[in-house]
Fold this protein.
Amino acid sequence: MGLEQSTIVVTGALEASGPTSEAELAAAFALCRERAFWIALDIVRDREEAADLVHEAYLRAQRSLPRFRGECSLRSYLLRLVVNLALKVARARRVRERLRHLLLPWAEQREPHTPEACASGAERSRALRAALERLPAKQRAAFLLRHAHELPLAEVAAVLAVSEGTVKTHLARAVERLRRELEEVRG
Amino acid sequence: MKRECRELRESLAAGERVTLEHVGRCAECAAFARDLEWLRSEAAALPRPPVPEGPRRRRVGAGLGGRRSLVALASALSLALAVGLALRDRGGAPPARALDAGVKRASDEPRLDLLGSLDEAVRVYAPATGGSTGRLALPRSEQSHEIDPLASLRPAALLIEDETTKPRRER
C-alpha cells in the first residue's frame, strides 16, 4: 500500500500541473538527481562544480516553489534550473579563459587533436568533449540533452525554455559544426 | 542549401522519424545522416561518473553573485573604518603600535580594564619600560610596599636645587 502511494505521488510530481508540495519536489528531485548531475557535468566539466550546481538548483526550486505554475513537469523545471546555472558557470569560465589567453599569450595552449592521437575510444570521447566545449552554449546544451541524455524533443524545449522549432535549429547547427570539427577524428 | 535539405537535416538532428526517400537521393544529406549516427553513438557513450552522495558543503564564495560580494565587502570595510575611528577617538594609535615606534605617551599605556587581564598588561607593558617580563615594572617603593624615608624631603631638596641653579643675576 505504502509503495503504491509513493509511486502515485512520484508519478504525480513528475507530471504535475498544479500546486506542488515540498514532498513532491523532493520526490522529483530524487528521481532526476543523477541525470541532473550528468547534464551539469557535461556542461561545466567539473565534478565538484556540477554537484554544487545540482544542490543549488534544488535549493532554488524550494525557494521558488510557491511561484511554480505547473506549466511544465517538475523534472523539466528542475533540469531547467540546473542547465541555466551550468550555462552561466560555463559562460563565466569561457570569458575567464579568453581573458587569460588575451592577457597571458604565452600561457599553455590546448593541444590540437590529431587523427593519430584520436584513435582510441577515450581519445574520441575527449575530442568530442573538446568540440562540444567550442559550441555556443545553447547548441551544446540542446545536443547534450537530446543525444547524450536522450530527453524527448518537447522536454528539451521545456528545459531550455524555447520552442521546439528553435531546438531543432540549434540541433542541426550543432551537428553541422561537430561534423566539421570532428572530420579528422571520424576518419 | 535547399529548403528540403535543411528541413530534413533539422528533423534528423532532432531525432524525429523521417522518410528515407530524400536521403537516398541526396548525397550530402546521406553523409549528414551517417555522421549524425556516429555523433549520437559517441555522445551516448560518454562516460558517466557516479553521482556524489550526501549533502553538499558549500564552498566559500560559491553562489555569491557579484552584487552580493560587493555589499559584503562594503560592509566589512565600513566596520573596519568604524573600529579604526573608535580607537583613534579613545586616544591615538593602539598601544602596541605606539610602543613599537618608540613613542610613549600616557594615553598609550595599556590599561587593565581594556586589556582584560593582568598577564596581558605585563606582557605588553614590561618590555617597553625596561622591567622584567615576569612582573609589572612599577617603582621599587610601590612593589615592596615600603615607606620611602626621603619622600617627604624631596620637594625641599628640589627647591634648594632650584635656588642654587638659578643664574647669578636673578639671585
